[in-house]
Design a protein that fits this description.
Blueprint: H1 2-13, H2 15-18, H3 29-60, H4 67-94, H5 99-104, H6 109-142, H7 147-181, H8 185-215, H9 222-227, H10 229-238, H11 242-271, H12 291-304, H13 307-313, H14 315-329, H15 331-344, H16 351-362, H17 379-384, H18 389-419, H19 423-450, H20 459-464, H21 467-487, H22 496-528
Helix pairs in contact: 1-6, 3-6, 4-6, 4-7, 4-8, 4-10, 6-7, 6-11, 7-8, 7-11, 8-13, 10-11, 12-18, 14-18, 15-18, 16-18, 16-19, 16-21, 18-19, 19-21, 19-22
Length: 530
C-alpha cells in the first residue's frame, strides 16, 4: 500500500516533465528529456549564483568567526526551501484534489499523510540544495575543513530539511485555514504570493547590509545567541561542535515530528471540512443590464477568480503602485537629480525619462494577450451570445484599461510632482501614457487573435506559454528601450515635452490603425474560431 502511494506521489511531482499540459497527452522521450535537462540547467544556474555568493561571504569571515558563514548561508537555504515548498504544501497536503478519494479507500490516514509530507520534504530538499551544496563546496575548496566538519555538514542537510518541512506545514495550515473561511479563495493565493514577494525583496536588500555588518564583528552579540539560538548552533554544528549538533538536530527533528503527528491526528477532520464564508441571500428585483457592461463584468470576474491570471498578467499594477509611493517619498532626491540633469542637458528635466519609465512599468500588464486563448474550448459559448464581436473586444480592452490606467496615472503624477514638471508637461505625459496603454491593450488582443491556442489543459499554460503573451511583453519592453535609446542623441537639444508629444501622437496613430484591424480582420478571425 505504501509503495503504491509513493509511486502515485512521485508521478504527480514529475507529471510536468512527462505530460504535455496543452494537450493532456504524454510527451515523447525526447521532449521529456529536454524538459528535464532545462530544469537541471535552471537549478545549476541558481547553484552557481549561490556558489559565488558563498565564496564572497567566506572571504570576509575570520577563522574565529567562521561558523557565521554557515549561519548566514544556512538561513538563506532555509528561506529558499520555504519559498519553494510552502505553496506545494498547501496544494499537496491540505487542498489536494484526491483527498476525498483516498480517504474513501481502505488506507490508513497516517500513511496518506506520511507520503504527502515526504513529498513536501523532497521538494524542500531540492530547493534548499541549490544553496546548501554550493555552501559545502565553497567551504571545502577554499578553507581547510576537518573530517568532523564535513560529516556534520552532510548530516545537517537532513535536519535543515526537517526544519523547513515543519515551517512549510505550519504556513500551509495557516493558508488553508484562512482559505476555508474566505469566500474568494483565489485572493488568498494572490495576497500570500505578493506578501512573500515583498518580504523576499525587502529581506534580500536588508540581508546584504546585515551580512556585511555581521562578518565584520569580532564577537557574537548576545542578541544573536538569544533570538537566533537555533541558527547560531546550526553554524557551530557545521564547524564540528558536537553539542551544537545535538541541539540543532534535536530541535529540528522534534518540531518536524510534532508537526507530522499533529497533522496525522487531525487530517481526516481537516480534509473533510469544506467550510467557506457564508453568503446571505439578498431580496430584490432582478434587473437587466446592457450587453457591454455584462461582458465587462464577465471579464473582471474571470480575472478576479484566477490567481494565475492576476499574478502573471497584472504584475505591472503592483509595480506602478510601489513606484508611485517611492516617488512621493523620495521626491526631494528625485527633484535634485532632475535639476542636476538640467545643468548638463539644457531643456531636459527628466520628463522623457519619467514617461519611458511609466510606460515600461505599465508593460507589466498583458491582460488582453491571453484573453482569447483563455476562452479555450468553451469559446463557442461566447460566440453563441446575442452580442456583436466588437462588444466582446471592447470588454477585453476595457478590463485592461481599468486595471492599468489608474495606477499609471498615480505613478505619473508622483513622477511629475517629484521632478517639478510644468502644467504643459503634465498634459503631454498623461497623453503619452494613455495612448501607450491603449496601444498595449489593442496590441495584445491582435497578437492573440493572430495566434490563438485554444487546446490547453492547464490555465497556467495559456497564461505563460501562449506565444501572444511572450511576444507582447518582450516586444513592448524592447520598443520602449529602443525609443529611449533614440532619444539620447537629441537629449538636451530640444525641450523634453516635444519628444513626449511626438511619441503620444505616434502611439495614437497606431491605436487608430489597430482599432480598424480589430474591427475588420479581427472580427473575422474571432468568429472563425467557433
Amino acid at each position: 500500500m505504501l509503495k503504491a502511494l509513493l509511486k502515485k506521489q512521485l508521478l504527480e511531482i514529475n507529471a510536468q516533465f512527462f505530460k504535455d499540459r496543452k494537450t493532456g497527452k504524454a510527451r515523447t522521450r525526447a521532449s521529456a528529456a529536454f524538459f528535464i535537462l532545462m530544469f537541471g540547467v535552471m537549478l545549476l544556474g541558481i547553484g552557481v549564483m549561490f556558489f559565488f555568493l558563498a565564496k564572497s561571504i567566506l572571504a570576509t569571515a575570520s577563522e574565529e568567526m567562521l561558523f557565521l558563514y554557515y549561519f548566514v548561508m544556512g538561513l538563506i537555504a532555509i528561506a529558499i526551501g520555504l519559498l519553494g515548498s510552502v505553496f506545494n504544501t498547501y496544494f499537496t497536503v491540505f487542498d489536494a484534489k484526491d483527498n476525498d478519494l483516498l480517504l474513501s479507500l481502505p488506507i490508513p490516514p497516517n500513511k496518506i499523510v506520511f507520503v504527502r509530507v515526504l513529498s513536501v520534504a523532497a521538494m524542500a530538499a531540492l530547493y534548499e540544495s541549490t544553496a546548501l551544496i554550493p555552501t559545502f563546496l565553497v567551504r571545502v575548496i577554499f578553507r581547510k575543513a576537518s573530517a568532523l566538519c564535513v560529516i556534520n555538514t552532510f548530516v545537517l542537510f537532513f535536519f535543515v530539511t526537517a526544519f523547513v518541512v515543519a515551517l512549510s506545514l505550519a504556513l500551509g495550515f495557516v493558508v488553508a485555514a484562512v482559505a476555508r473561511k474566505v469566500k474568494k479563495k483565489s485572493m488568498i493565493t494572490v495576497v500570500v504570493s505578493i506578501v512573500m514577494l515583498v518580504l523576499y525583496y525587502v529581506g534580500y536588500f536588508k540581508a546584504q547590509q546585515g551580512i556585511m555588518h555581521l562578518m565584520q564583528m569580532t564577537e557574537v552579540p548576545k542578541a544573536v545567541k538569544t533570538w537566533m539560538f537555533l541558527f547560531y548552533h546550526m553554524g557551530l554544528a557545521a564547524e564540528g561542535r558536537p553539542i551544537s549538533m545535538l541541539i540543532f538536530s534535536s530541535i529540528s527533528a522534534g518540531v518536524c515530528l510534532f508537526a507530522y503527528f499533529l497533522l496525522a491526528k487531525n487530517f481526516i477532520r481537516f480534509a473533510t471540512s469544506k467550510k467557506s464564508a457564508s453568503v446571505k441571500g439578498k431580496k430584490g428585483k432582478i434587473t437587466a443590464s446592457k450587453a457591454s457592461s455584462s461582458l465587462l463584468r464577465r471579464e473582471l470576474k474571470r480575472f478576479s477568480s484566477s490567481p494565475n491570471y492576476i499574478l502573471n498578467c497584472a504584475f505591472g499594477t503592483l509595480m506602478m503602485v510601489v513606484a508611485g509611493v517611492f516617488f512621493f517619498i523620495k521626491w526631494s532626491s528625485l527633484r535634485t537629480l532632475a535639476e542636476t540633469v538640467s545643468v548638463y542637458l539644457p531643456h531636459s528635466n527628466g520628463l522623457f525619462i519619467a514617461a519611458i519609465l511609466v510606460c515600461l512599468l505599465s508593460s507589466g500588464n498583458d491582460l488582453t494577450a491571453p484573453s482569447v486563448t483563455l476562452e479555450g474550448k468553451n469559446i463557442w459559448i461566447l460566440l453563441s451570445l446575442p452580442v456583436r464581436t466588437g462588444q466582446i473586444f471592447k470588454a477585453k480592452i476595457q478590463m485592461h484599461l481599468l486595471l492599468t490606467v489608474f495606477p499609471a496615472l498615480f505613478v505619473s503624477a508622483a513622477a511629475l510632482f517629484a521632478i517639478g514638471a510644468s502644467a504643459l508637461s503634465w498634459v503631454f505625459m498623461l497623453l503619452l501614457v494613455c495612448a501607450f496603454i491603449l496601444f498595449a491593450a489593442e496590441y495584445g488582443l491582435v497578437l492573440n487573435l493572430i495566434k490563438p491556442s485554444l487546446k490547453w489543459t492547464s490555465e497556467i499554460v495559456a497564461l505563460k506559454q501562449s506565444p501572444s503573451v511572450l511576444v507582447s511583453v518582450f516586444s513592448e519592453y524592447l520598443m520602449m528601450i529602443v525609443l529611449g535609446g533614440l532619444y539620447l542623441p537629441f537629449a538636451g537639444k530640444l525641450w523634453d515635452g516635444f519628444y513626449v508629444l511626438i511619441l503620444a501622437v505616434l502611439f495614437a496613430g497606431i491605436d487608430v490603425g489597430l482599432y480598424f484591424w480589430l474591427k475588420k480582420i479581427g472580427v473575422k478571425k474571432f468568429e472563425a474560431l467557433g
